[in-house]
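Hello,

I think I submitted the iron/sulfur cluster job twice by accident. Can you confirm which output corresponds to this input? Input:
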Amino acid sequence: MATLTIDGHEVTVAKGTNLIEAAKQIGIEVPHYCYHPALKIVASCRMCFVEVTQEVRGKARTGLLPACNTAAADGMVVSTTSDAVKNAQGDILEFLLINHPVDCPVCDQAGECKLQDYTFEHGLRSSRMTEPKRFKPVKKLGGGIRLYTNRCILCDRCVRFLRDFVGTGELTIRNMGNANEIDIMPGHPIENPLATNIVDLCPVGALLAEDFLFKARVWNLKPMPSIDPSDSLGANTYLDVMNNEVQRTRPRENTAVNGYFMTDEGRFIYHAIRSEDRLVTPVQPDPQSDELLEAPWDAALEFIDEKMRAAGSNAIILLSTHVTQEEIAAAKDYAATIGTEKIAYIPNACVTDDQTFPGGYVIPGDKSPNTKGITQEVPSSIDDADITSESVVLVINSSVRTENISDAHVEKILGADFVFAIDVLKSPLVKHAFLSLPGRMWAEKSGTWINRDGIAQEFTPAVIGPIGSRNERDVLRDLTKRASNPRAHKAQSERVTTS
Ligand code: SF4
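Support: Only one job matched these inputs. Its output is below.
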């Protein structure tokens, strides 16, 4: 351990901790651009200069050192606010702004730009630049990422992330001196499943995702903490919401789960929430065509309740690996109420090999968020279930992917006398089930998933679900209530027919 003083406050940190992290532990932010805790240290931007007094060969010496590349040592006295530090920060900012365009009113990064923030906090000087600013065109780098070259401050984070963390190295700095610029190798666009993390890493508005381009000003977004539903890692995320719509997804730091990053698949899966294939009302397939006909909620519930209750021990409840722990508990209550022990899970059909990156990030091959949780709670799978023409099956699916139940399992399920589904998209099962009810996407409800490492992670609603959809847990509770007291729940069933 090393005990040092930063801005008059004593702090004890692990040996080897750099001064940016040491200061962070006592709530002091040292401004920086090129430094990022997940990347190799290059100490190139010099924005993190601090004034350090330490004993060198028996003599106390004071000087400016980059905090990112200076390890905390016993007895060190550090100032982050001395005149020398303020002058250095002002000089660096003046230098970085020489060619930086005054794009803030049209730049997507405005409001979360470190150049804006630090200029406001530490700049305080006007530009002495009288020459015209350098101009460079906007480039499409691949992976839905654009480089606004004029705005780049050459911190090199994007290059190091792709080279050292992802291992694909699509970006490089080309040309010399004033002509330095970020670029791809000709004919080799950015193409890797973690690519869009460079947009979050870029401290200015140089790298922007086309998905979010000119969609919203960031100060109008409400960041809602959530969990990535696209795989079994359960990356922690923010869903940035405006007008009850998710506008973008960003990774949320959790060193025990996803570190600082997330996959592009998880980042863009929010588009499923507003998919044209969204199920927003109870439906029944039209026997005369491929169309899905709307059915009234109450009649649909009444019909399902009657059939499931009548089936008794022939009723089977199947749960996808997407359902939450709370929905599993509600499904078990319902099974107990109607007197069946037949409850099983449906293994996810979307499984590939795990993908491990040099930086240690692993994209799981299991593309569902609660495989661990459901296999702990529900030991038997659909493969053990005996589905016959006497069976009445209720499937709770609610997956963000329509292909999560294999064709073989859909076929097996459709062997039952009646099949009912609760789902969020018009999946193959919904197209063939006798009756389907619209559930809620993860962003529209609360719940808990257990990730592949056994970490239970709760999430809460970020947006209100479509009118007509209902939380799966509430639907199961409603069915349980109806089954416990059938007479109290008599309703008309004019649109639900057995033809
Ligand atoms: Fe840094 Fe952004 Fe320039 Fe890359 S594009 S070097 S992350 S400022």
